[in-house]
Amino acid sequence: MTKRKGALALGAAIALLGTMTVNAAAAQSWRAYRGANAARYHRTALTAGERMFMRTVAQANAGEVLAGRLAAQRASSPEVKMMGRQMVQDHSAAGRQLRQVAASHRIALPAAPDRHDRAVLARLSRLRGAAFDRAYVQAERRDHAQTVRLFERETQRVQDPLLKTFVLENLPVVQRHLEHFQRVQPGR
User: Fold this and answer.
1) Which pTM value belongs to this model?
2) How many C-beta neighbours within 10 Å does residue 106 have?
3) d(CA 103, CA 54)
4) Helix H or strand E encompassing 113
5) CA–CA separation, 170 vs 152, rounded Å?
6) CATH class of the domain defined by 48-183
7) How many CB atoms lie within 10 A of CB 95?
8) Which of 81, 117, 173, 185 could form a disulfide with 63 if both were Cys (CB 3.0 to 4.6 A apart)?
9) 45 — phi, psi (to 5°)?
10) pLDDT digit string (tens) for 44-89?
């Protein structure tokens, strides 16, 4: 019986050692995978202000994409049509990038514009031609000026590295949009 207990103990020890080796290898493999995909598994806690900023920007991007589509369809000026297409392209890209940041924190973002942007879209959808051009450019100047101020403020406030990267990469894009809309003279 003693030999049998010894053999069982030895077998259990070998099995336990094998399990520990497999678990250690699996843990090491997981750490390597997670390290290679750090952005995907990034889990710092966001502040309430960072979450609010992300929601605000997600809604603004959705509004810009819809307004840009309207401009591409209804504007009379080729320059305004072109800017509408550029807004769709740039704000769609920013929206995708922001959704990646949100996904890394397991946060759901709104996919629709806020109430203010919906009202602007409703007003723009009733216009065509030069009247549309003037109203669209005016709305874009105002919205991009507000967005530039928001992004500039957030460059100082945001602590999360992924969100900070988003802000720093997209601030120059929004500034470029504002400069362009300030130069456009619709209906002249």
Assistant:
1) 0.75
2) 7
3) 12
4) none
5) 11
6) mainly alpha
7) 19
8) 117
9) -75, 135
10) 689 999 999 999 999 999 999 999 999 999 999 999 999 999 999 9
